[in-house]
Design goal:
The protein is α+β, with helices and mostly antiparallel strands. It has 3 domains: 38 residues; 162 residues; 212 residues, Rossmann fold. Helix 1 runs antiparallel to helix 2 and helix 7 packs parallel to helix 8. The longest helix has 19 residues. The chain starts with a helix and ends in a 13-residue tail after the last helix.
């Protein structure tokens, strides 16, 4: 309705006051106002109220003593990255990140497709993504970028290929180092829309890619797993998605009442709650990785073993912490997550006696682990406890991992150990009021 129509409606209302009385006139005025109000209201995309993450990888920058994985840079090449979804939907958006770049990141094109095998995608499934309506665009230094939504059949527990063409010489500044998924790098050229992409190199990391979201349904919600290398899936089999968050997603999808629940893995290998090392510490990245995660409703925290072991392993004496320090860090995470309405579940720290990483294990460190675990189990600080320690420890020697679950380094589980961790999660923790 335009302003002329509004004026006529209000004029009619005024005439009504004189001809038919005050009450009828007021009713007419109210009707005119109601008719006019929707024309002034901004358009609203209801789908935007229901977006939920289906996959994530926490962005990080690698600093000494660690170096960026090869290749450390790209020059006019396409990077095809394979990710595993948790929940499905009929629309998709992709989040890129230049958060650790010091210069603008030039993007030539981005596509999303169903993954077939190796560097190949399912023919006819590729779709070009735009960002603010542009297929080619620039991401400012330090910023993320979210694609425009497109219609796309996002599979449940399926593999997608995200292909990014980088037309200029580009430093691999923003990565997720431990991808445990083969990334394919082309020779020079834009192969983002190619069914079979020629490959010049492969690497097990993700570059400039931090999330995939879908519209799900009205009940969709996400679990966010915040952790270190054990959540990141270190020592699990590459290209098989045997991290415990992936295996938890499989369990959820096997039960109809939980199929609307996504699982977002925000683990970073080497991460700590109190100090940076590989990527920002857990408290520093909490807003980005958890509180702002699309659809986040539940948080599982499994961090702390690196607070204990890394100072000795890397000679960082000034970064030695007490059990009380670790607990205080967890309390901050709990408080901030609850302020945003999330339920917070505490994961106990798993065994590490005998680890092959020199200087990582000490008897004093084990005492700290036991103290932190006692607090997690008994303090009632968390909404619930997930006893990962009990799930994979050796009953005959509780300071050590059960050999059947040990990857061999006596710190990280193998595929069977990650399955045992996923099995230790009580699915009833993620029930909604209308679940059966």
């Amino acid at each position: 309705m335009n302003l002329l129509h509004e004026g006529r409606a209000l004029r009619g209302a005024c005439l009504g006051w004189t001809r038919r009385g005050l009450i009828k006139g007021l009713l007419a005025a109210v009707t005119a106002t109601a008719l006019f109000a929707p024309a002034l209201a901004p358009a609203r995309d209801d789908d935007d109220q229901r977006w939920v993450g289906t996959w994530t990888a926490s962005p990080q920058n690698l600093e000494p003593p660690f170096v960026a994985p090869n290749p450390g840079s790209f020059n006019g090449q396409t990077v095809r990255q394979i990710i595993r979804t948790s929940v499905g939907g009929s629309k998709v958006r992709v989040r890129l990140s230049n958060e650790y770049g010091t210069t603008p990141l030039s993007i030539g094109s981005v596509t999303v497709a169903r993954h077939a095998s190796g560097p190949s995608v399912v023919a006819g499934s590729s779709r070009t993504l735009t960002f603010s309506g542009r297929a080619a665009f620039t991401i400012p230094a330090g910023a993320p970028a979210l694609s425009d939504p497109i219609d796309f059949d996002v599979p449940v527990l399926g593999d997608l290929a995200i292909s990014i063409y980088l037309p200029q010489a580009t430093t691999a500044s923003t990565v997720h180092s431990l991808g445990l998924s083969t990334t394919y790098v082309s020779p020079s050229g834009d192969y983002a829309d190619a069914v079979v992409m020629p490959t010049a190199a492969t690497v097990p990391s993700w570059y400039f890619l931090s999330g995939v979201t879908t519209n799900g349904n009205g009940r969709s919600a996400a679990i966010v797993a915040l952790g270190d290398s054990i959540t990141d899936g270190f020592a699990s089999t590459v290209d098989t998605n045997r991290r415990w968050p992936n295996l938890l997603a499989v369990r959820l999808q096997a039960r109809p009442q939980y199929r609307h629940v996504a699982v977002l893995n925000q683990g970073i290998s080497g991460n700590r709650t109190l100090f940076d090392l590989i990527g920002p510490n857990a408290q520093a990245r909490l807003d980005r990785d958890v509180l702002n995660a699309p659809g986040a409703r539940w948080l599982i925290v499994m961090e702390g073993i690196n607070n204990i072991g890394i100072p000795g392993a890397f000679g960082l004496a000034s970064q030695q912490v007490s059990a009380e320090d670790i607990i205080a860090g967890h309390q901050q995470i709990i408080a901030r997550a609850r302020e945003r309405g999330l339920k917070v579940y505490g994961g106990t720290l798993t065994p590490f006696e005998g680890t092959t990483f020199p200087g990582y294990y000490t008897a004093a460190g084990e005492a700290k682990r036991q103290a932190v675990n006692a607090w997690i189990r008994n303090s009632r600080a968390f909404d619930a406890v997930i006893d990962f320690d009990k799930a994979i420890r050796d009953p005959a020697n509780p300071g050590r991992m059960l050999p059947a679950y040990d990857s061999g380094d006596h710190l990280h589980p193998n595929d069977a150990g990650y399955q045992a961790m996923a099995n230790a999660v009580d699915l009833r923790l993620f029930r909604s009021g209308d679940d059966n």
